[in-house]
Design goal:
Layout (H helix, E strand, L loop, with lengths): L9 H12 L14 E3 L15 E6 L5 H5 L1 H10 L5 E7 L3 H10 L5 E4 L4 H5 L7 E5 L5 E5 L6 H9 L25 H4 L8 E7 L7 E7 L2 E9 L1 H8 L8 E3 L9 E7 L5 H16 L1 E17 L5 E3 L13 E3 H12 L2 E3 L7 E4 L4 H4 L4 H10 L2 E17 L4
Parallel strand pairs: 2-3, 3-4, 10-17, 12-15
Antiparallel strand pairs: 1-4, 2-5, 5-6, 7-11, 8-9, 9-11, 12-17, 13-16, 14-16
Length: 401
Amino acid sequence: MKHSKFLLTAAFLAAFFQTSAQDLLLRKAPPIKLKTMLQAPQRQLPTAGLAGKVVVLEFWATWCHPCMANVPHLNALQQHFADSNVVFLSVTDEEENKVSAFLQKRKLMGWIGIDSNDATNKNYGIASWPATFVIDAAGVIVYAGHPEELTEQVISGILRGTYEPAVKKAEPEEAPLGNWGGGDDPVYTAHFSQKPLSVQTIRPSVMSGFGGTGFNQGGGRLGITLLGLNLPSVVSYIDELPSPIRVLNLSHVKDNLLWDVIFYRNKGCDMPKALHDLSLLVEETFSMTIKDTTVLTDVLVASYSNSSTIMNEKNINFNAPEANMYHPLKELFDRLENKTGQIIDYPTDAANNYIDLFPVLKAYYKMNGGELKAWLEEEGVMFLEERKMVKMEVLRDSEQL
């Protein structure tokens, strides 16, 4: 398993952003302070340059996959309103040279604002990307949400002055949850700012409709947070399996029960030890054993060769900003396994060969298993059904032994 430094589900980020965005809706827009401008008439944003205009203000980053997925949609809106009183301004906190290099490879229309001192991101309370605001001609924020939900009809209504923002009604308060990353407990961080020295816990999930995984390592510290996962998903993470379908749950713990797992050490812990300790924690908590086994089952065997779209890592400049959209085949095959529920057997070098997701990024996140398989076949991957012995993990109650 390739562990990202920090990973949250899109549902969690969307919910988090919607909550904070509501605070700005129907208020005077905070100042837009940018270090420099790209693809704009001037290098500096004129003081009065946006006065009297409708401004589509997009917060994005070159590394942000959901941001890139919405680029075609935003480009289409920009083209549609090219002759209208609308300015499209995309703001990133990255350095100018990195953004300029990215724009040479990827088409992002409109003005690009460099906010390298983070002033505008802070003014708008940006904590997740992408985030979109629309400021009307009077300087009031009338739209705050996800770029995917911004339509031609919404912008046309804002131009005519007939658009009525949907203000989210206050909902009954739930137990507060704090921000979290790898090793953080959102219940703890809602009340305390100082990290504990050590955490190792499993509990019924406190998440409401969303969750995710977080991993953080550095300075001798290591943290893992798994929120809202069922037991096979927890075990597949711990044992670094491609998907939960490789976990045979024969224990008393039902698959429909969701769990939170938090692990943190402030020193002297590496990933192998952390995963070993978590495996023991699962066995002890649920009075079960986790054992390797092999099962004869149907698999899809993947192969590839002589494809112009599959790139070996030796031929990739990973310092180039556009490389953020390159995905290793291994991750795509693992996603396919999760989507189809069928085990995918692939070459060991799948972790070293990449495909550029940018051309299909919007569709990629919505592809079902059949669509993902069909797209991979278009990119030069071949699949063959076979029966093979496959390594699995089996969970049994201790008293069953």
